[in-house]
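Reader question, answered in our methods column.
A reader sent in the components of a multi-part assembly and asked whether the whole thing could be modeled at once rather than chain by chain. We filled in our standard form and ran it. Here is what they sent:
COMPLEX SIZE: two components
ENTRIES:
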Amino acid sequence: MIVNAGLLLVNSLAAAVLLLAGLAKLVSPEHLRRALVELGARSALGTGGAVRAVALAECAAAGVLAVRPAWWLGSVLVGALGLSFALLGLVGAVRGSQEPCGCFGRPAGRPLGRVSVLTGFGLLATVAVNVWSGATPYEPAAGPLGAALALLVLCLVTNRSWVVPLVRPLLTSRARTNP
Amino acid sequence: MTVFFGLVLLVLACAVVLLFAMLGELASRVPTQDQTPSKQVEPIENAKLGAEPLEWPAELAHVPARDASVVLVLSSSCASCEKIAAQVPAALDRGVDLTVVVSCGIRERGEDFAKRHGFHRTHTYIDHGGTWSTQKFGVDSSPAALLFRRGRLQTALLFWDLDSVLAAVGRVDNEIQEVS
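And here is the structure of the entire assembly that came back:
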C-alpha cells in the first residue's frame, strides 16, 4: 500500500514537472532558445520550433506517466528527457550560463545549472522506479488525478510571487470581518 | 468514468498552467516602473493613412480646417496612457498645439480621465468605445499620435514618451512639406 502510494506520488510529481516545463516552453520558447544559443547550440537546435518540439515531447511524456507509467516507450521518452535535462544543466553549470532558461514558466528564473541537473536525475530515478515495479500497482484513474493535483500545487508554488499578493488582502479582509 | 474525470481535471490544470505561463510572458514584456520611458516610436500597421472623413465630431471640427494638427489618442484604461496624459499639461504650457481623443469603455470614465488631466485646456473628444478612431482611421492601439494635414491622416504612431513622438511627428511634417 505504501509502495503504491509512493509510486503514485513519484509519477504524479514527475508528470507535473514535465507538464509545467513543457507548457511554459510552448507559450514562450524564446528564453530557452537564447539559453541554448548562449551554450553554443547549433542553429537547428537553437530555434523556437525546436524548443516547441521538445515541449511537445515533454507534454507527451507527462501524459504517458499519468496514464501508462509502465509502458516501455514512455519510459524511454522520460529517460531521454531526464538525461538531456541533466546534461544541459551540467553544461550550463560548467560554462557558467547567465541567460535565464525560462524553465517552469519563469522568464526571470535561473539559468541552466544545478536545478536542471537535479530535475534530470529525478526523472531518471522515476524511470528506474517504474521499471523496477513492473506493472502499475494502483488504480488507473489515480494517475491523471494525482498528476492534476501535483501540477496545480507545483504551479502555485512556482508562481507564488503573484499568488501571495493576490490572496493576502483577501485573508486580511476576512480576518477583519470575522473577529 | 473516473479515468475520464481524471483526464478532464488534468486538462483543466494544464489550462491554469498555460494562463500563468502567458502571464509570465506578458510580465516579462512590460517595462518595470523604474525604467525611463522608451523613446521608441512605432507606426501603427493597420492605420488608414490618407483617410479623410467627411464628417467630424464638433470637438474636432478644427482639425480639417487647419494645415496641420496633432491628435493624441489616449485610452482611459491603459497604464501608459495615464503617464502620457500626465505629460500633456506641460506640453500645453510650452505652447504645443495638441488635440486629445479619449477612448473609453464607459463615457463617465473617459470624462473623468479628461478632467483629472486638465484636458479642458484643449480640444478634447470623448470617443465612446474607441469607435471613431477605429472605424475612421483603423487606430485600435493607444497611446497613439495622429498627424493630420487639412483633415487627411498623414501618419499614425504608437509611442511611450510624448516628447519623442512630437519630435517624430515634426520630422514627418517637415518631410511632407518638403515633398509638396
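What stands out: The first strand of chain B starts at residue 41 and ends at 43. Chain B touches chain A at residues 2-3, 5-7, 9-10, 12-14, 16-18, 20-25, 27-28 (CB under 8 Å).
Send us your own complexes using the same form.
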